[in-house]
Amino acid sequence: MASTTRFGTRAVHAGSSPDPHTGAVISPISLSTTFAQKSPAVPIGKYEYSRSSNPNRDEFEQAVASLEGGKYGLAFSSGSATTATILQSLSPGSHIISGADVYGGTHRYFTKVAQSHGLETSFTTDLLTDIPSLVKSTTRLIWVESPSNPTLSITDIKAVAQLAKQYSLFLVVDNTFLSPYLQTPLALGADIVVHSVTKYINGHSDVVMGVAVLNDDDIYQKLVFLQNAIGAVPSAFDSWLAHRGLKTLHLRLRASSENAQKVAEVLASNIKTGKVLHVNYPGLEMHPNRRVVMQQHRDGLGGGMISFRVVGGRRGAEAFCQSTKIFTLAESLGGVESLCELPALMTHAGIHASERIKSGVHDDLVRLSVGIEDGDDLVVDVQQALDRATGQVNGVN
Ligand SMILES: Cc1ncc(COP(=O)(O)O)c(C=O)c1O
């Protein structure tokens, strides 16, 4: 699919062409683990063994690469497996600089797994200011999540990419929270973009998968070797499902983003009513990095994720999550359905309380993944849950 076509056209057509044998418009799911050979080590077609590559994974990888504006896509069995494979490509003794409020599992991987392989990570809440003082002779990589999970802080990717170039470091950006529809980090100077495909790219909460997209031939050769050697690869069926999900990414992201804007505005209006302490949402004018959002996100859209602090401490936050009627209390995000969760007790429970609070993940912080239901219904649901939760805490009902 020509890179001159617009996003929606590429989402539907990239990596998809009619099956040459049957004309099927949608690719068949190629479940075979092995592929026949004409003579030893000379396969009939492109494929030999499904861990190394298979038609459905190939098509999905081509599609995501096209949407991220990259040359290569590499799919993995989860977002975490993507992180693990990239870190495995660094030699022991390497040093990484990471944003502090990254996904809890990424933080866990840096501190509890990568460390035992001889990798050291420094965390900072202000990458732009701190990179020069954190860089050492062993530093190889900068890891950015923007917006971050769960505080929705925004990093100026272009500015970090300039620093990365200055110090000859690789820049990896986790783009899970926005998807390539709202942000394309390679165009801003990143070397590798990663996703938990489990979230917006698949978009239907029925696949666990990850992907990395990049342009550099040497890094690609290293990672494609590790993709096969480590073998943390997705099944043909999951690749097929994720590719199907990807075809509506632009429609889902726009709808989620518009709904989230409405919900965030209602939450912000409850600061005055004394029910909400603070709202983190990149689409609000009050977001501290709104200027960067306007440059970095498509049409300045805020995305589908919001976090906010409810009055009443942890009890207030728990009561909110148990009072919603449309938002389901569950981990994960990026599906068509709306979800809510308490990071301090759920997704980020593994991070020590003092470090968690330093990054703004307070006990009363609620995270919302706003889906594509009717936005007005979501607003009504959030307001009634807020009224109930704060009423309960204050002993009103
Ligand atoms: C921003 C981010 N990156 C990476 C991951 C890990 O992805 P997975 O759950 O597919 O392993 C998650 C999971 O929640 C995430 O939110």
In the CATH hierarchy, what is the class of the largest domain? Alpha Beta
How much of the sequence lies in strands comes to: 15-25%
Number-wise, the strands total: 14
Rg estimate, integer Å: 21 Å
- Reported by name, the CATH topology of the largest domain is Aspartate Aminotransferase, domain 2
* Morphology: globular
Work out the helix count: 14
Number of structural units classed as domains = 2
In the predicted model, the low-confidence regions spanning at least 5 consecutive residues are none
> What's the CATH H-level homologous superfamily of the largest domain?
Type I PLP-dependent aspartate aminotransferase-like (Major domain)
| Bound molecule kinds, no repeats | pyridoxal-5'-phosphate
- Which sequence of strands runs across the widest sheet? 3-9-8-7-6-4-5
Looking at the overall shape, the CATH architecture of the largest domain is 3-Layer(aba) Sandwich
Question: What is the SS-derived class?
Answer: alpha/beta
Kindly state the percentage of residues in helix.
25-40%
Give a quick precis of the structure.
The protein is an alpha/beta fold.
Give an overview in words:
The strands form three sheets. This protein has a seven-stranded mixed beta sheet with strand order 3-9-8-7-6-4-5, with helices on both faces. It has a five-stranded mixed beta sheet with strand order 10-11-14-13-12. Strands 1-2 form a two-stranded antiparallel ribbon. By secondary structure, the protein is α/β, with parallel strands linked by helices. The chain is globular. The chain has two domains: 7-246, Type I PLP-dependent aspartate aminotransferase-like (Major domain) (Aspartate Aminotransferase, domain 2); 250-393, Aspartate Aminotransferase, domain 1 (Alpha-Beta Complex). It has helices at 7-13, 55-68, 79-88, 104-113, 127-134, 157-166, 179-182, 217-230, 236-246, 249-272, 290-296, 313-321, 353-358, 375-393; strands at residues 37-39, 42-43, 72-76, 95-99, 120-124, 139-145, 170-174, 192-196, 210-214, 276-280, 305-310, 328-329, 339-341, 365-369. Bound molecules: pyridoxal-5'-phosphate. The site of pyridoxal-5'-phosphate has 15 residues, from helix 3 and helix 4. Residues 1-23 are annotated as: Disordered. InterPro entries: Cys/Met-Metab_PyrdxlP-dep_enz (IPR000277), PyrdxlP-dep_Trfase (IPR015424), PyrdxlP-dep_Trfase_major (IPR015421), PyrdxlP-dep_Trfase_small (IPR015422).
